[in-house]
Amino acid sequence: MLLNREFLNAVEFRNIEKGLAEILDLWKNGKFHISQEQEDCHAAIEQYLTEKYGSAGQKIHTGRSRNDQSLVMIRLYEIAQLKNITKLCKELVETWSKWIKKNGKTPMPGYTHMQKAMPTTVGAWQESYKNALEDAGGLVEAVIELLDQSPLGSGSGYGIPLDIDRKATAHELGFKKVQSNPIYCQLSRGLFEAQTLNAAVFIMTALSRWASDLLLFTTSEFGYFSLSAEFCTGSSIMPQKKNYDVFEIMRANLTVVQAAQFEVQQISGRLYSGYHRDLQLVKPPLVRGISVTLDTLETALVLAPQLQLNKEKLAASMTSELFATTKVYSNVKKGVAFRTAYDNVKRSIKRN
Amino acid sequence: MLLNREFLNAVEFRNIEKGLAEILDLWKNGKFHISQEQEDCHAAIEQYLTEKYGSAGQKIHTGRSRNDQSLVMIRLYEIAQLKNITKLCKELVETWSKWIKKNGKTPMPGYTHMQKAMPTTVGAWQESYKNALEDAGGLVEAVIELLDQSPLGSGSGYGIPLDIDRKATAHELGFKKVQSNPIYCQLSRGLFEAQTLNAAVFIMTALSRWASDLLLFTTSEFGYFSLSAEFCTGSSIMPQKKNYDVFEIMRANLTVVQAAQFEVQQISGRLYSGYHRDLQLVKPPLVRGISVTLDTLETALVLAPQLQLNKEKLAASMTSELFATTKVYSNVKKGVAFRTAYDNVKRSIKRN
Amino acid sequence: MLLNREFLNAVEFRNIEKGLAEILDLWKNGKFHISQEQEDCHAAIEQYLTEKYGSAGQKIHTGRSRNDQSLVMIRLYEIAQLKNITKLCKELVETWSKWIKKNGKTPMPGYTHMQKAMPTTVGAWQESYKNALEDAGGLVEAVIELLDQSPLGSGSGYGIPLDIDRKATAHELGFKKVQSNPIYCQLSRGLFEAQTLNAAVFIMTALSRWASDLLLFTTSEFGYFSLSAEFCTGSSIMPQKKNYDVFEIMRANLTVVQAAQFEVQQISGRLYSGYHRDLQLVKPPLVRGISVTLDTLETALVLAPQLQLNKEKLAASMTSELFATTKVYSNVKKGVAFRTAYDNVKRSIKRN
Amino acid sequence: MLLNREFLNAVEFRNIEKGLAEILDLWKNGKFHISQEQEDCHAAIEQYLTEKYGSAGQKIHTGRSRNDQSLVMIRLYEIAQLKNITKLCKELVETWSKWIKKNGKTPMPGYTHMQKAMPTTVGAWQESYKNALEDAGGLVEAVIELLDQSPLGSGSGYGIPLDIDRKATAHELGFKKVQSNPIYCQLSRGLFEAQTLNAAVFIMTALSRWASDLLLFTTSEFGYFSLSAEFCTGSSIMPQKKNYDVFEIMRANLTVVQAAQFEVQQISGRLYSGYHRDLQLVKPPLVRGISVTLDTLETALVLAPQLQLNKEKLAASMTSELFATTKVYSNVKKGVAFRTAYDNVKRSIKRN
């Protein structure tokens, strides 16, 4: 764009291309260093180019600010990670589908208020989490749609007093459109990141509740499912122990992502318009929240196919009280009014 | 549906229709009462119908549970309120557009780090909030899409052992589709409500930051904008006071909605699958969060057109330091490398 | 104080005394009304006194502001409620002590990672919660100590330009000392209320985890404890149900109080010094958080003595793996090194 | 203790002493490594001792669990850091006292609702924050009192089946008393850490609001205070910029500590009794919250004495409306009833 608009001449443009390739090469070999004084990669790159290629380096910051460069970088990172999250969700949906095909028809008690309620199947139970991840897709898409606008050229929040071509840079960076109002580019800091984390919280809630269920269903008292010993841990004083720590970490990871969302929301929530240094603190919770979500999805992918049914325990758990509602409805089918049928079954249970 | 599937005969169906019309009429006249023992409207309606129409009343609970009835009710409430929120957002966007057309070109300092940065206009400032509300539209739509599935017939989370027609009831209630897995219906409690509130938080963040800006820009030190006295308050001991309380309430209201989102997320976050009474506590923060969002939008709609420019103050604020970057770029346009032009202007400022 | 400092004469003072007694009487009989225009009780009281007693009424606001009157009122409310909370905690500690004396020695499995770990007793389990409430005492005391300073006379945050006697009013209101810096009186808004709620969260965490344990231990799979049917609920479609909803509400109530603390922290967290209308929004979450804490304590007091042991289930649960560590240590007592003893027991378990 | 109770003989005891000294030495020289398989320092230490000193190493885990060792370590860390926090608070109080002595009498406008209210002084303003930090002392003390009980010997939450002397180890570790109930030791995980962070949030709220005030009072529009350029930053495109980033970071740091408190509260909030691996996730937010608090206090200590008054700006800001309440009260002193005096001044302002 700088070449097309003649802010760079052809020689400068080629020097920048060459210089950036050199820097990438140095970086890959661990030989490109950013000093404390340079503060960040943007200054280090400019300095390298200036020392080696003179005016090319001195012109590279034309039409931009460190501020909009950071905005671009964060947004590209988020979009890429949201796509990774979607990919892992789809793989997990696939994995669960296979598991359901194999194990799904085995009966299992359905619970309400932690008490036995009505019969269900391990397939119906597992499918509920599959459905949640499927629905997550639409939310993630809406967030990507929101983020898919280029802030490059918004400068420090008040544009660049130069005739730059924002459409061209948006297109080259792969953004769908330009985020035209530069003050809105700043306003969207934190606001957009909270949306990214909100989609992650939706997914993590499903995974955390799946893990909670499994922690209950792998107790010796319930005992419906198990994992082989290689996925479990022992204890430093209790030699008999087989613990499902991995589900506990998955359960708690939800909180890590929720706290990250909270942190991002609060940092940006009541600031005045325009950039504030506070907003730099959005990055750690954003990266933390995304990383934990990716890790948890990857862990779930490893564990999901390994989940074994304890068929005897499941069969023994299908006790008669689970069928009380079925009895009610078998009378409804014969024409008895629902309330009468319900009262009759209730009375017969109390008599026993 | 119950008639079509022959769980009700034609007489029972007509009696229920009549009875429900009577109840609605009594309710409108303040004469339909729900007693402590009845717990909720569902029991009260059934009892009324049973006392007056016998078997019709005893059959009305066929194919449903109080549980899925509540789910339906909450979801219809949310969808309706999200549509109201969208409508108010659009009106506010319209109102701001008109205000921008009238006032937008007046210059105004742009700030970063709360210090004067570069020139902008009151229109660009106002437009940034307009853009945020426009983008909110996509998020709200995605939430409505998520919620638009009928839980009726999921019973207490394990379906109804009777051949009911869930598609028919979904259609009659105006839902796009059936939420087929009944365990997922329970899993979505809280999970979906957190999404509703998340969309509200996005909108409230924009409104709260708009209010924050206005609290700063209406101080006597900045003084760029004002409202007439009828929108302001006084003090019980300071006779000179003109306070912009209304913006303070708008600013703080964001926190109310964020706390509601937090409460909903936490209540449902780590429960086992299946219904738990904990989930009843989702309702107060949901209603609180939605009401505060609607109130704040309505307040903004009243205030937005009333915002007056103090043109002298604005003109006086356009001091020379705001134009330093313009000077840099006027030299860039003449062919000076950006970094050289920047350093020259910086040196000249220090000399003064 | 106003009389002693001669801002009121003796007649005016007597009229105010009389007038306030009349107002109290009217109030008790539901006959003292506060109109929309009066905004609050302070204005209504002044108007009543002025209409009936002239100058006495016009002088009653001398030396104060609605602002510091509200501060006083909130603080007295908090101190009183914290004392109520302490009283209820002590009663619950007493109740649990009696229960432990009666039931404490019955063996019970101790769990880690939700798996059987080592033997314990129902007494040791119950005592852990008792200890938590005992330790809460020190925290509540520290909060009362913090709050026990009189803001009266701080006006709207910048004092009153009149020679009032703040020590005298502090003493008459029962405060330990004067909060002398009036700007600090404003700074403590929200800051102090978050401390009140933090002490409540400590207590609620103990009660919520007690309720969580009981929800697990009353499942049919564990079955260690039960309550009689009068404390449980049924279902609208499952006639067999006995649900422990009351523990679910207790578990979820923690979240309500945490959300209240969060709301208060956030409202006051990043304001400028001096009063802001935002701070008025501190009241609803404060009252909500305190009320839920009091309700939950009162509920626990009703339930605690009713908790029944299912002795057969408890006896059957004391299976051999719980004693693996005991075996290790019985060898340690005979002189075997801990790690050798541990490895031996671990090997013997694996062989079986 | 193990020697006194004869679980170690004198030779073994000496070997352990020697071995631990060696390990410390290796550690200081960066030569003691913990491998992935060893998981933590406890296993690495045991293995080192066993390889070098045989039975001494195999006996070192006698009477403890990794679980209670971690609990001890966290608690000692918290107590030490809370004492550091107290020390820094005292230094800051001292620094502010000196600053007040030097600058305190300069008049300054007092604000409510961000509008000029009544006259105050820079000393009164600064003192309000000093008072907050002084009051923090009592809260921190109460938390230390709570934490000052030794969990060593509680094993994994159900004690050690061996006659160990918990009082002796508590005393040697510097704890005030034994936390006797081992299930309570587990219950206090997270619960106690949330208290540590809550005290930190109290302090951080004061620092964050101080920083907020300074961000407002260093704008060019207010301009009451300044820092010299070495504490400020510039911009990559605006050559004129002098930004107070350091106060923005301080303002935002409050959120980091609040999010840490939130994370800790939520992880431990609704778990069953007994240890869960979830609790391991308490450590990162605990350390993050404490570190940020210490950093912010140290930064405040550097900045506080550097804060310069802009006397002309301050003098010019003392405009007449600030004295309206003084006028009211000068008439009250002459015997005019407060409300009459107030109404008279209000009318005279409106006339102008």
Description:
The structure is a homotetramer of 352-residue chains. With 352 residues, chain A is mainly alpha-helical. Chain A folds into 3 domains: 1-62, Orthogonal Bundle (Fumarase C, Chain B, domain 1), CATH 1.10.275; 64-318, Up-down Bundle (Fumarase C, Chain A, domain 2); 324-351, no CATH class. The first copy, chain A, is built from 13 helices and 6 strands. Chain A has helices at 10-28, 41-53, 55-59, 66-103, 122-147, 166-172, 182-187, 191-217, 245-269, 283-303, 311-316, 324-333, 338-351; strands spanning 107-112, 115-121, 149-150, 177-178, 225-226, 308-309. In chain A, the strands form 3 sheets. A two-stranded antiparallel sheet of chain A has the order 1-2. In chain A, helix 6 (166-172) links the parallel strand 3 and strand 4. The first copy, chain A, starts with 9 loop residues before the first helix and ends with a helix. Chains in contact: A-B, A-C, A-D, B-C, B-D, C-D. Chains A and B meet through helix 3, strand 1, strand 2, helix 5 and helix 7 of A and helix 3, strand 1, strand 2, helix 5 and helix 7 of B.
Shape of chain A: elongated
CATH architecture of the largest domain in chain A: Up-down Bundle
Mean pLDDT across residues of chain A: 95
Figure out the total of helices of chain A: 13
What radius of gyration of chain A results from the CA coordinates?
28 Å
Give the SSE string of chain A: HHHHEEHEHEHHEHHEHHH
**What is the CATH class of the largest domain in chain A?**
Mainly Alpha
Q: What is the CATH homology-level superfamily of the largest domain in chain A? A: Fumarase/aspartase (Central domain)
